[in-house]
Amino acid sequence: MHVRLNPRRVAPSMVGLTKLKGAAACREEGCPISGAGESRDTPERRRTRRLRHLGALSGLLAGYAAVAVAQLAATVYRPEASPVVAVGGATIDRTPGWLKDWAIRHFGTHDKLVLQLGILVVLALLAMILGVVASRHRRAGSAGVLLFGALGALAATTRPGSTSPVDALPSVIGALIGAWLLYALTGRAATPALGDPDWDRRGFVKVAVGAAVISTGASLLARSSGGLQQQNAVSSRDGVKLPAPASPARPTPANSQLRIPGISSFITPNKSFYRIDTALVVPMLDAAQWRLKIHGKGVTRPVTLTFDDLLRRPLIERDITMTCVSNEVGGSLVGNARWIGVPLAPLLAESGVRPPSKGGPANQLVARSVDGMTIGSPVEDVMDGRDAMLALGMNGQPLPFKHGFPVRMLVPGLYGYVSACKWIKDIELTTFDAYDAYWVQRGWAQRAPIKTQSRIDTPKSFDHRKAGTVMVAGVAWAQHRGIEKVEVRVDDGPWQQATLAAVDTSDTWRQWSYQWQATHGKHHLTVRATDDTGRTQPAKRTGPVPSGATGWHSIEVEID
Q: What is the rounded distance in angstroms from the CA atom of residue 6 to the CA atom of residue 233?
């Protein structure tokens, strides 16, 4: 039986099959194919993509190696010379005050960690971009790494705390390692090898894995070793024996600490005390090498003091509550500790300093830290009889490193940014007209006495409690004035006076409590305090800039 095929039906199928076979053959041979939806993925394009991807990976590894090696070199020499720390410090110095306040408000004491992570992310992205550039122009990519190393070296040597041009060394060493590694990796990614005509796969993997392992080892070693400077500082602090104070703090009244779950401890433990400063690396100072210079306008007898000089002087011990100006209404940037130190006013008087009220020419005391921070305090406040001091100890121990070891300054009644210089090395007497300290240059007020504030510690906002008696409690502070009364309001009802705990001194916060007969439903609780001058904290909410937040703390609770 013969079947006649219709050529008009067969021909299109045959033509389509021929086209498919031709397209497949063309793809295998790498020839261009025209037509909608047909691939144009040539070997050259695949090679370009591979080089870009390997270049980005090479850049990331080179950047990792550069940072790790630089960090290790800085640990051995001086941690503050690390390029990440130096660039981070320069970034902080150039950040507007409102942005710093936003960071503290959202990240609190973790603001420095967030900044460092952000810097590392940016460096990783830039390293990947340089890697892609190096995949086409190896020398240009490596030159880019060296350029970033030069910027890190510049930042390290121009920081206020820089001690010598040698601070550039960690950045230079890291950049040289990173540039060499990027050049080597991109070379292997672009060079054929035996058994692989496209690229040296085995050589690239060996170098990449080796670099990753060595970089990780350098990073871990940098974190664990601490370096000679840190070891000396730790040994120095361990060897400090604080003398008994000539003027001890009076015993804390037994009922100054309320036995109410959830309320803040009257004395804040060192590990829980807030820390707000601009130091990305905590300065580790050897007390034996520490010096403090007192000089400036109206100083008739300039002096340079050692740590032992301070230990030989009569010491005072005082309970003092400190507050950060960045503390929001109801915030946690406040703490109370027992400090021991040298009274500052007599020390200044011995150098010939007189307050403006007694004819002294200087009205501002500028304290400088080893990390370059400057803090300006009114001379009148420092010498008016309050317990301003150069603190050596905190809660019975030498100062912790993160709180200023070996010496920091304290002035009760003033926000920290105008009184509490940590790691202090220099005191200069000048005027407010002649010099603006660090934070004043960034929009904060020259003078900043602490404002009266109160806070509800318990219950917490949005807590659920059962109907009946609910203990509402918290703290209030108005340093160097004292707290006269605290009042609580439920919803829009009348103000009810809270019960105050015993007062320690006017320089410490004061706990309070209120027995609330809670009824079912959602309720707003609000607190306000009145200081010993009779002034009640204002209701209007304002932010911390330029001289501290105001307003009443309020929470919402639900009673079941």
A: 97
